[in-house]
Amino acid sequence: MFVRFREYELVSGHKSLRCEIVENYRDKCSGKVRQRSISYLASVKEHWTKYPRVRAEFWRRVEDKLSCLPLSELEAQKVRSAIDRRIPREITPTSRLGITRKETAAVNSAPVPFHTPSSSAAQTPSSPAAEDTDPSAQELLSRLAAKLELDL
Fold first, then answer.
1. Each residue of 97-112: pLDDT tens digit?
2. Does any domain span residue 119?
3. Among residues of the chain, what percentage have pLDDT more than 70?
4. Does a structural domain hold residue 131?
5. Residues 6+ apart with CB under 8 A from 105
6. What's the Rg (C-alpha) of the chain?
7. Quick one: which of 42, 54, 71, 104 could link to 75 by a disulfide (CB 3.0–4.6 Å)?
8. What is the DSSP string of 82-135?
9. What is the value of pTM for the model shown?
10. Tens of pLDDT, residues 29-50
């Protein structure tokens, strides 16, 4: 059992995504592997998936359909994660900027130097220095700052 997204071309030239749960089976007569649609979940116009309200409505319909299906919690979670890869439930600030998950992981794993003005003061994070940070992470940080119009 898996999730399939079918793309349909609309008259307006945009694409519509139809999300459905499908299972494989072997045809008894010919012996060929076929696919059987288990359930239609929801559909959304692809160019509207960038809007949080549209995604929320899409996910509401998906959750309504999943609650009616006789799936175990593990199977339902697998379906949710497969759909989430194509149409994310939430858009993070970095995904709005076009930064990939790999680049985000590089920034999150980059060492952030700390300094202590005095021995009694608590440690506070300072801005990353170029010599203390991985060059690729530093480049990513400056790219992110430029998109956010910040000054590092």
1. 555 555 555 555 555 5
2. no
3. 66
4. yes
5. none
6. 23
7. 71
8. HHHHHS-SS--HHHHTT--HHHHHHHHHS---EE-SSTTSPPEE-PPPTTTS-H
9. 0.58
10. 999 999 999 999 999 999 888 8
**Is 144 contained in some domain?**
yes
Co-location of 72 and 10 in the same domain: yes
Same domain, 85 and 98: no
Are 33 and 22 in contact by the 8 Å Cβ rule? The answer is no
- Amino acid sitting at position 27: D
- Of the two residues 77 and 103, the one the predictor is more confident about is 77
Q: Would you say residue 14 lies in a domain? A: yes
Rounded mean pLDDT, 119-141: 55
Residues ≥6 apart with Cβ < 8 Å to 108: none
In residues, how long is the chain? 152
Could you give the maximum distance between any two Cα atoms of the chain, in Å? 81
pLDDT at 25 (0 to 100) = 93
The parent domain of residue 131 ranges over: 94-114+127-148
* CA–CA separation, 87 and 89 (whole Å): 6
Q: Are residues 60 and 132 in the same domain?
A: no
30 and 80 together in one domain: yes
Pick from 40, 74, 90: which residue ends a domain? 90
